[in-house]
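User: I'm writing a tutorial on reading structure tokens. Could you give me a worked example: one chain, its sequence, then its tokens, then a sentence or two explaining what the tokens reveal?
Assistant: Sure. Here is the example chain.
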Amino acid sequence: MAHGMEMAFPFLDTEVVKLALSTPPQLKISSAEDKLGKQPHRALASKVGIPDEYAYRTKDAAQHGTGVHDTFGAMARKNGFTPDLVENIGYQSETVTREKLASSSRDGQCYADKKLWAIPRHVQFFLDVTAHRYNLLNKTERGKIKGFLEKIKRNKEKVRVD
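And here are its predicted structure tokens:
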């Protein structure tokens, strides 16, 4: 701000996240053959005048090359989310939702014929609990995560969920 510039992070805004999570995957990825994805972004870019050679070029997901995988793992461990924890409470991400936060392989779609990131269960649980905390889950998913949080309390596990 001191230099007349302001940093903005629209993709970290909870309302933007809620909108993104509520957008049907079929609108983001047009078919199993769609290797580009991000269709709403691309259509908007083209509509506002960005040349199609840029709007429709292949792009790596933001999480690749940024170290975010290791960062999520470290954050999960720091807050007590471990493989043993998810084993003890019976957490399986598939029992909560098919949509995985921070995953590149939503609804079985693959990019370049492979899944780019198989997120460890304890990291996914950490992300699910974080989404629960910020009210980003639907009623069904919130109820399931609440059940796992109650198991943690009953087992007196040392997990930071505040």
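What the tokens reveal: Residues 7-59 form one domain. Confidence is low (pLDDT under 50) at residues 100-116.
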